[in-house]
Amino acid sequence: MRRVVFNQKGGVGKSSITCNLAAICASHGKKTLVIDLDPQGNSTHYLLGQGTKPEITIADYFSQTVSFNLSPKKPAEFVIPTAYENLSVIASDPELEAIEQKLESRHKIYKLRDLLGKLEKDFDHVFIDTAPALNFYTTSALVCADKVLIPFDCDAFSRHALYNIIEVIGEMREDHNENLEVEGIIANQFQPRANLPAQIIEELVSENHPVLPVYLNQSVKMRESHQACKPLIHFAPSHPLTQQFIELYNLISGDKPAAKKTGSKKKTPVTV
Predict the structure, then answer these.
(1) Which of 140, 193, 199, 203 matches a 20 to 30 Å C-alpha distance to 69?
(2) Intervals of the chain under pLDDT 50
(3) Measured at the alpha carbon of residue 85, what is the angle toward residues 223 and 23, in degrees to the nearest 5?
(4) pTM to 2 decimals?
(5) Burial class (CB within 10 angstroms; exposed 0-12, middle 13-18, buried 19+) of 101
(6) d(Cα 198, Cα 30) in Å, to the nearest integer?
(7) How far is CA 20 from the centre of its chain?
């Protein structure tokens, strides 16, 4: 299963959601790969540690597709094991920005799909983190993914952007990947005691948008886990936010039925 976490709006928690769902997936015994396509490299730092400079990155893979190379690296060489069992990453690199135009001009949009096809036997699940833009790399991810998860912070600006995202995914399905599905919209940084988030979610549901019934509460614990470079399942396994991520994973994986509307007003809010 290949999932891409995508939103053209920044600051909605794409990297946090990617890494935490992947870490939970790996903790369930599934061979799990995270691909970091954002030049900022937040997922790379989160999973490998701040200050870590990987010797080989996804930029190296894309670079070798546009240059003559007598000894191209094999797909498995781009995979870096993390400190967590069953969890690996293909690291990002700021160099992605420098080579993007060359990749676009040479129509290399299917090269990520080729890479994942060659790694398919090695991993049960792939989670792809993307930049907050519909660029070459995000398009490459949507071309090769089975499902899309859309992080959503509950405000009017995000709602407006959401409609555009759903339209983009529809066009991508029509032009490049007929099997691409929106797996769900993830309400992130949810504030249980505020009226507006609940109102926006109710309206989206009434419009038949696939809002997942597990809401991720706003919590300082997430920032602490970023600082520690440890996904929540390893950093604070019993924390309410961790449990919400577990419920979300169980929902999308089908392992267990999820509790309905975690983070709703009737729940005790997470301390922020």
Answers:
(1) 140
(2) 257-272
(3) 35
(4) 0.91
(5) exposed
(6) 34
(7) 9
